[in-house]
Design goal:
Layout (H helix, E strand, L loop, with lengths): L4 H26 L6 H7 L2 H15 L13 H16 L2 H21 L4
Helix pairs in contact: 4-5
């Protein structure tokens, strides 16, 4: 699909308006009334779902787009370490520290052993 400059700017404008409208709808709908408990409970799951959608491809896919669940997938191994720390401590800080430290250690060990 080859868009000209005008079509590209119109697309950007349309997407921006759509994003603004969806955010405004919640503000306008619930500004003067209590949000239903079911909606409130459902919205609690949006940030983790968005984070997973952003992170999962980098953990599970190779550069050519194929699934990689092998033990040599260092990012996946580090994510399992970070997830274990998250489950045990419930601390965002310790989860990030454990995940990144394990990834760096695994990458260093892989280079040292000649694997990459």
């Amino acid at each position: 699909m080859n868009l000209g400059p005008l079509q590209l700017w119109l697309l950007v404008l349309a997407l921006g308006l759509a994003t603004y409208a969806t955010r405004l709808s919640f503000i306008a709908l619930f500004a003067r009334r209590e949000m239903p408990k079911a909606v409130h409970r459902a919205l609690r799951h949006v940030p983790p779902a968005m984070l997973l959608a952003l992170i999962a491809p980098g953990l599970l896919l190779t550069t050519d787009g194929s699934l990689n669940l092998q033990p040599d997938n260092l990012r996946l191994v580090a994510a399992v370490v970070g997830g274990s720390v998250a489950f045990k401590t419930r601390s965002t800080t310790w989860t990030i520290v454990a995940g990144m430290m394990s990834l760096w250690a695994l990458e260093a060990a892989s280079r040292w052993l000649g694997g990459g």
